[in-house]
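[Discussion] Sanity-checking designs against the backbone

I'm trying to build intuition for which residues belong where. Below is a C-alpha cell string of 278 positions. I'd appreciate it if someone posts a full sequence so I can compare it with mine line by line.
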C-alpha cells in the first residue's frame, strides 16, 4: 500500500499546504506534543485507517496512531476509533486530508456492504467499475473490498471489456470478439457488453467468456441467463444502486456491477475532536 499510496497522499497534502499552514503556525509556532481523538459520528463500516495514519506519518514519522477498530469493522455513532499523538502542528495540518480519505473510503465500504447484504443467499457477486475519482482509484477499490464487494478490472491494461463503442468500431459483436481473440494473450478472458438478446446470441457464437447484460429489463436478463445456460459467465450492469439492487438478487447472473459504489456513495461522518497537549 505504501508503494502505491505515498505519492498520492503527498499530492493531496501538497494541494492543501502549498507553502505553510498559516492558521496553525499563527497559534502554534513551536513544537508541542498533543493528542486528538477520532470519533465516529454515524453508524457504518470503517475503511482506510492505514491511509489515515499514513497522512500524519508523512508529515512527521514520529506521529503515533492507536487504533481501536480495524478496516471492515462496523462502527456506531459515538465510538472512539483512534487516538493520534504527535506534534500538535502536524495533527492540525494533517486533519483535513486524513479525514477526507477516511470518510470517503468508509462511505464506499458502508454503501457496498448495504448492497452485498441484499445479495446474501444468491450466487451473485457485487463488482465495482472504473467510475472512480481521478487519483483515488487505489483507495476506492480497496474500500469496495473492505465492504464485501469484489473488484472488476483495475484499469484499461488489466482486462478486455468490449463496450458499445468498441463493437461499433469493430463492425459488430462477432467481429469485436474475433479481433480481441486474435490480439490478446490466450490467458486473457474476453468480456463483451450486449444490449439485447440478438447481441447475446452473437456473443455466445463468437466465444465470449463473460457477457455483460447492459440496461436490460429484469425479464430480459432472466431470459438471457437461460439462453447462456452456463456457456459463459454473466454480468448485469446499468444504473444499479442501493435503491434497486434487491430486484436483481434472484436473476441468476454471476456478477452485478455498480458504478454507484464509487461515484455515489455518501461519506461516513467522522471527526477529529478533543485536541489537547500531553
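Best answer:
Here's mine. Compare freely.
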Amino acid at each position: 500500500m505504501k508503494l502505491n499510496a505515498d505519492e498520492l497522499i503527498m499530492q493531496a497534502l501538497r494541494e492543501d499546504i502549498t507553502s505553510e499552514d498559516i492558521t496553525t503556525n499563527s497559534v502554534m509556532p513551536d513544537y508541542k506534543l498533543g493528542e486528538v481523538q477520532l470519533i465516529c459520528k454515524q453508524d457504518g463500516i470503517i475503511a482506510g485507517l492505514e491511509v489515515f495514519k499514513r497522512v500524519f506519518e508523512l508529515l512527521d514519522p514520529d506521529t503515533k496512531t492507536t487504533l481501536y477498530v480495524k478496516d471492515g469493522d462496523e462502527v456506531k455513532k459515538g465510538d472512539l476509533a483512534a487516538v493520534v499523538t504527535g506534534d500538535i502542528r502536524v495533527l492540525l495540518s494533517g486533519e483535513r486530508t486524513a479525514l477526507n480519505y477516511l470518510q470517503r473510503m468508509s462511505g464506499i465500504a458502508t454503501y457496498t456492504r448495504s448492497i452485498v447484504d441484499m445479495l446474501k443467499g444468491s450466487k451473485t457477486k457485487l463488482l465495482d467499475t472504473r467510475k472512480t475519482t481521478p487519483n483515488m482509484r487505489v483507495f476506492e477499490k480497496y474500500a469496495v473490498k473492505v465492504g464485501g464487494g469484489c473488484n472488476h478490472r483495475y484499469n484499461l491494461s488489466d482486462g478486455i471489456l468490449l463496450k458499445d463503442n468498441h463493437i461499433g468500431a469493430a463492425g459488430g459483436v462477432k467481429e469485436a470478439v474475433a479481433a480481441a481473440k486474435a490480439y490478446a494473450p490466450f490467458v486473457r478472458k474476453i468480456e463483451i457488453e450486449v444490449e439485447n438478446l440478438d447481441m447475446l446470441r452473437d456473443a455466445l457464437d463468437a466465444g465470449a467468456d463473460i457477457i455483460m447484460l447492459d440496461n436490460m429489463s429484469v425479464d430480459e436478463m432472466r431470459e438471457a441467463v437461460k439462453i447462456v445456460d452456463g456457456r459463459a459467465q454473466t454480468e448485469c450492469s446499468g444504473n444499479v444502486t442501493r435503491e434497486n439492487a434487491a430486484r436483481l438478487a434472484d436473476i441468476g447472473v454471476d456478477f452485478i456491477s455498480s458504478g454507484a459504489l464509487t461515484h455515489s456513495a455518501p461519506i461516513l461522518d467522522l471527526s477529529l475532536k478533543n485536541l489537547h497537549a500531553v
